[in-house]
Design brief:
By secondary structure, this protein is of the alpha/beta class. It has two domains: 3-164, Rossmann fold (3-Layer(aba) Sandwich), CATH 3.40.50.2000; 179-339, 3-Layer(aba) Sandwich (Rossmann fold), CATH 3.40.50. The chain is built from 13 helices and 13 strands. It has helices at residues 16-30, 65-82, 96-102, 124-137, 146-156, 196-209, 224-233, 249-254, 270-277, 289-294, 309-321, 323-337, 342-350; strands spanning 3-8, 34-39, 54-57, 87-91, 109-113, 140-143, 161-163, 183-187, 214-218, 240-243, 258-261, 282-285, 301-304. The strands form two sheets. The chain has a seven-stranded parallel beta sheet with strand order 3-2-1-4-5-6-7, with helices on both faces. A six-stranded parallel beta sheet has the order 10-9-8-11-12-13, with helices on both faces. Helix 2 (65-82) crosses helix 3. It is globular. The mean pLDDT is 96.
Length: 353
């Protein structure tokens, strides 16, 4: 069976990129593929990895391109040759700079799996170069949506771009979300681009009219102290719960009512697909093609103008006030989530390996 390597920034991270990469790797391993992870960071995954999968860590985080570029590239090349990989899947265009050189003259299929929106501005120079290298060096570039695929094709005039959606493996076992839980949920890294400050400002208005509801924010990150201070300044700290990152996020999906995504940018957010599977209606900022694909306005939730707190408040308020309307959207969310089952999507991956 083919030998597949996943080259990832840090398998120890607890984000959607890491979760979905592990989901796909686990599914391939279960079907007999020889799968490995090569992590620039550590080797202790936050999410469960199949016991048949080997993890190789460089322990190079944080790195400096100036100081560490050649050592990381050299180590990657050595591992690809040692493992006799047939295919290397690069998870995130920001690390294309390493694989583009590491695979020179090696007969290894080179795939970029881009999890970020085409227009994401973080680390702009590195990502711009990464996109160019992927368009010229990779056998395939995998985007998360057809809209992102089109953006790549229009920019680089190449036919090596395909789209494969993020698969969901987290399904409800016994319980589903329900209106009676009276809980608004949001999950993610506590980084500035995740927009939790907008959510807190929206909750400032909502909590006055819904004193029996509460907000749960699940995640960890550099903005935690700032967000807690903002909640205190807005006088909402009694109805807001900050919960550290967890690998039992299913508990929070099933014990909540509505999922809110206040992000400034996203790819195809796995947390939204997971929340839909548990029957959570979604209220989100229209921050990317992936979010627009998942949230059908007034069908399974509300798609709000980016950063428009008033629209977010209005959408949430409608769901919080109308349990029958809520249930219609909850049922629609569950139905739509079935388009992202692992069985279908893993076949799409196997077709390009």
């Amino acid at each position: 069976m083919k030998k597949i390597g996943f080259f990832i920034m840090n398998i120890e991270s607890a984000g959607g990129t890491e979760r979905v990469s592990i989901n796909v790797a686990n599914a391939l391993a279960k079907q007999g593929y020889d799968v490995s992870f090569i992590s620039i960071g550590g080797n202790k995954p936050f999410f469960q990895v199949d016991e048949k999968i080997n993890i190789y860590a460089m322990n190079k985080l944080p790195y400096s391109l100036k100081k560490d570029y050649f050592s990381i590239t050299k180590k990657l090349r050595e591992l690809v040759k040692e493992l006799q990989l047939d295919t290397l899947i690069v998870v995130d265009g920001a690390i294309m700079l390493f694989s583009a050189l590491a695979l020179v003259n090696l007969h290894v299929k080179h795939i970029l799996w881009e999890h970020y929106s085409f227009n994401f501005t973080g680390n702009r120079l590195v990502r711009t170069l990464g996109k160019y290298l992927a368009s010229t060096r990779c056998d395939r570039v995998v985007t998360l949506t057809e809209s992102e695929k089109t953006l790549w094709q229009e920019k680089f005039k190449t036919n090596n771009i395909i789209s494969i959606a993020n698969p969901n493996t987290l399904l409800p076992k016994n319980k589903l979300a329900k209106w009676e839980n009276k809980t608004l949920l949001s999950v993610g890294h506590l980084f500035s681009y995740k927009g939790f400050d907008y959510l807190l400002k929206a909750w400032h208005f909502l909590s006055k009219n819904h004193p029996d509801w509460n907000l749960k924010i699940v995640g960890s990150g550099e903005e935690e102290e700032n967000l807690k201070n903002l909640a205190k300044a807005l006088d909402i700290e009694d109805s807001v719960n900050f919960i550290p990152r967890t690998n039992d996020v299913a508990f929070y999906y099933e014990s909540s009512s509505i999922y809110c995504l206040p992000s400034q940018t996203e790819g195809l957010p796995l947390v939204v697909i997971e929340a839909m599977a548990f029957g959570l209606p979604i209220v989100a900022f229209n921050c990317s093609p992936g979010v627009k694909q998942l949230v059908e306005h007034k069908e399974n939730g509300f798609l709000c103008e980016k950063n428009n707190i008033e629209e977010m408040v209005n959408g949430l308020d409608l769901l919080m006030n109308n349990p029958e309307f809520y249930q219609q959207m909850s049922d629609k969310s569950r139905l739509m989530s079935k388009d992202y089952g692992i069985e279908k999507i893993i076949e799409e991956w196997k077709a390009i390996l």
